[in-house]
Specification:
Helices cover 57% and strands 2% of the residues. By secondary structure, the protein is mainly alpha-helical. The chain is globular and about 80 Å long.
Length: 521
């Protein structure tokens, strides 16, 4: 392995943090038997060699060695390397991008083009990896094929062929996602893919797979969605709550979850895309979660992201369900009525995790599209009284960002504020304290019930940095706070920290038009 790696003049190249002479060590680290070393190497590849998606000369030089890694069954965590290759080769410049490139960007654009050509040329190896023994590799290979291979009809045929025999649930979902990606990149195939997804959505025996098919259908061929999509999705969510998830460990399990590619299911053949044709409607490719199963905890960005993801998904029977729902919402786009009804159903779910997801998605919908959201906002407000802190916090953060649209939840916000006075102000390991999101949400409504919390904040040794903004939203309602603001301003010593301490107080007095504060000012 790595024949010729020492013949490359790595020192003459650079990556994001200087000379690239450390790249051979990173590549060898990806093949290490030590999981911590593998993860550190992958972190280094994303952090320096492929920093923020950039492609350098050293990135191009890595491509042949990365392909060596992914085809060697003795290398562990190859799924992460497949994802790295997909990211390196998956950037496409359309005509508008090419027209906007200035002289300083020519080299970078050329590197992207060469990376796409180099990875695409080797993309045939991903056909074999679709049935690899490592489920992490099988998880990454479908998206690699959908993104990089120049023969989308062949890719679709393989995805359909693999689905009925794939034993791992998450990999099956990746096969469906890859089909949707093919349809988005090669629009002449959208109807063909859409009809197959429609069959999956109605026939597959796994509720997760049916939901995945609906999500991709919404993205690539929305005309194929059922008219009753909201009750259908709501029913699938209930089914996923009531049926324990089977383990997709790749062992001796009977194939499940898919439907075989039958001759009578196949729509009329569509045109294949020529090998030199450019994909249509490209999407940026981001690195997905690296590897599968148990992982060591390492002080790397990759390790931290994985740890956060594990915490978020702990206890979830179907950790991928939230991603499928987000994909579905992206596909439904401006169908505000359907999206609102679906989120309202989720917010009434007995599953707190589904409600957390629904709260977050509700905020995104309300901020993006106009609509009648009173019921939805009230349902978000109901989550404030839940004993699960993550759910209540998520709800308060969403309501904080809604300003006046949060009015249907005003009573719920006030009740939460009254129930927990100790949470009115948040303190941090460094920096000034800040008002909690519940206080800010209520203040942004101009609700006088936020005033006691602001008064308490003004009595603390260090004033919350956002008190002034809250007073501004309350306006004349906060007039009783003028005396406390003047008193705290008079206490500010004129030293190097005076600006930070005085700013929130001055902002509050200005909002109140408190001319009597002239002596303190």
């Amino acid at each position: 392995m790595f024949s010729g790696i020492d013949e490359v003049d790595w020192a003459s190249m650079e990556h994001a943090y200087g000379p690239a002479d450390d790249v051979p060590e990173l590549l060898r680290g990806l093949a290490s038997a030590d999981p911590a070393e593998r993860e550190a190497a992958l972190d280094g590849m994303y952090g320096a060699v492929h920093h923020q998606g950039d492609v350098y000369a050293c990135t191009l030089a890595c491509i042949p060695f990365l392909f060596e890694l992914v085809v060697d069954p003795g290398v562990q965590d190859r799924g992460g390397v497949v994802e790295l290759l997909t990211s390196i080769g998956g950037f496409d410049l359309d005509e508008d991008d090419e027209a906007e490139i200035d002289e300083d960007e020519i080299e970078g654009a050329a590197n992207y083009a060469m990376a796409a050509a180099a990875v695409t040329a080797g993309a045939g190896v991903f056909f074999e990896l679709i049935a690899d023994e490592d489920p992490g590799v099988r998880l990454a290979a479908p998206l690699a094929l959908a993104t990089l291979h120049r023969h989308p009809v062949r890719v679709l045929a393989l995805l359909r062929e693999r689905l009925p025999v794939e034993p791992d649930e998450e990999v099956r979902l990746a096969l469906v996602e890859a089909a949707g990606r093919v349809a988005l990149r090669h629009r002449p195939l959208a109807e063909r893919v859409g009809k197959w997804l429609g069959l999956l959505a109605s026939r597959a025996d796994s509720p997760g797979l049916r939901l995945a098919a609906l999500a991709q259908l919404a993205r690539c061929w929305p005309d194929g969605l059922p008219g009753d999509v909201v009750p259908v999705v709501a029913g699938l969510l209930r089914e996923m709550r009531s049926v324990p998830e089977e383990s997709g460990d790749g062992g001796e399990h009977a194939p499940r979850g898919g439907i075989a590619a039958r001759e009578d299911d196949e729509p009329e053949p569509g045109p294949d895309t020529a090998p030199d044709a450019e994909p249509v409607d490209p999407e940026p490719v981001a690195p997905a979660e690296t590897g599968r199963g148990e992982h060591v905890v390492t002080p790397t960005l990759v390790g931290q992201l994985r740890s956060l993801s594990a915490q978020e998904n702990a206890g979830r029977g179907a950790p991928w369900a939230a991603d499928l729902l987000r994909t579905l919402h992206v596909g439904l786009d401006d169908r505000v009525g359907d999206r609102t009804a679906l989120l309202a159903d989720q917010l009434r779910s007995p599953d707190r995790r589904q409600r957390i997801d629904a709260v977050r998605m509700s905020g995104g919908l309300i901020r993006a599209w106009r609509g009648p959201y009173e019921e939805l906002v009230a349902l978000v407000g109901e989550q404030l009284s839940d004993p699960e802190p993550r759910l209540a916090e998520a709800a308060s953060h969403v309501l904080e960002e809604l300003f006046g649209l949060a009015a249907p939840a005003a009573d719920a916000l006030a009740a939460r504020l009254a129930a927990d006075p100790g949470s009115w102000v948040k303190t941090w390991a460094s920096g000034p304290p800040g008002l909690c999101s519940t206080v800010k949400a209520l203040a942004r409504l101009g609700d006088a019930r936020a005033v006691p919390a602001l008064a308490a904040a003004l009595e603390l040794p260090q004033v919350a940095h956002d008190v002034g903004f809250a007073v501004g939203h309350l306006g004349a309602t906060a007039r009783p706070l003028a005396g406390a603001l003047r008193r705290r301003l008079a206490e500010v010593e004129l030293d190097e920290g005076a600006y930070d301490r005085a700013s929130p107080l001055l902002a509050g007095l200005t909002a109140l038009r408190a001319g009597e504060a002239a002596p303190e000012v």
